[in-house]
Amino acid sequence: MESILRVEELKTYFLTLGGVIKAVDDVSFEVKKDEFFGLVGESGCGKSTTALSIMRLLDDTSKLEGRILLGEQDIVRLSKRQMRHLWGKKLYMVFQDPMTSLNPIMRIKDQIGEVFRKRGEKALKTGEIMERGRELLDQVDIPDSDRVLNQYPHQLSGGMKQRVMIGIGIAIHPDLLVLDEPTTALDSTVQFKIVELLLNLKTKYRMSQIIITHDFGVAAKLCDRIAVMYAGKIVEQGKYVNLLKEPAHPYTQGLFRCIVKKDQKTDYLETMKGYLPSLNNLPKGCYFEKRCVISKPLCKEERPRLIDIGDEHFVACHHFPF
Questions:
Q1: Which of 58, 54, 59 is nearest to 7 (CA)?
Q2: Single pTM value for the model
């Protein structure tokens, strides 16, 4: 199947007074046409930094190495001016907090009108903007669209703002849509509605997407393939059905044990002991070694590489099969 995006040996480092922070360290993956690809892991593992690297939205303290191929175009080699021609048309990102994306002093209808102008359409009259806005909000199941179009972002709930941002992404129809924690900070009812919305849009628009989440439940419902990240590296990658049925890395297994299963009754929530290593002082061997329940002397000395264990399933562990 055709690839929309190929990330090859991506390294994103930050140069600070405290040393070099290796936020993303030698990461490779591809996103195929019409595919939902998930990046999953704890906070601080490099998911969002990977997405911001793809979008080229990092500040000047960052240093990028490797290749990020959108089609045949290497994004790493482009200037910020050249990237402006890709933002919106080829690449679009829905951020974790949509309030940081929506202009607080512009009504929703004006922001939607701005989107169409960015696409190269001629200036639209107010009536035309309202009509296009109604169509867009209807697509993301926002009721009473006339009222919402005339409101400011602060007058909308978190779920409504998230829907507006997703709707704008659909209107632009980029080659790749990136969603950073699309359900975080929303209550469980709204989370369910956002997931259902994305599922419906997936079948309707067949748009390639990267879903960034720490929630395996969200990833399982939405994603065709999943990459599990830990301390800036991918430790396991494969079809979601394989990862759910037979997680191969001790970290992935530990994350699954922390999930409360459907209809499970328990007074005890299992946790994973330990913490992520410092990204400016990473260990010599496996980054997960100090938290791993099957750690051996080799793990302290040698860093494991991703190996193919069959059916597009990859794992970075010295001791697979266990």
A1: 54
A2: 0.90
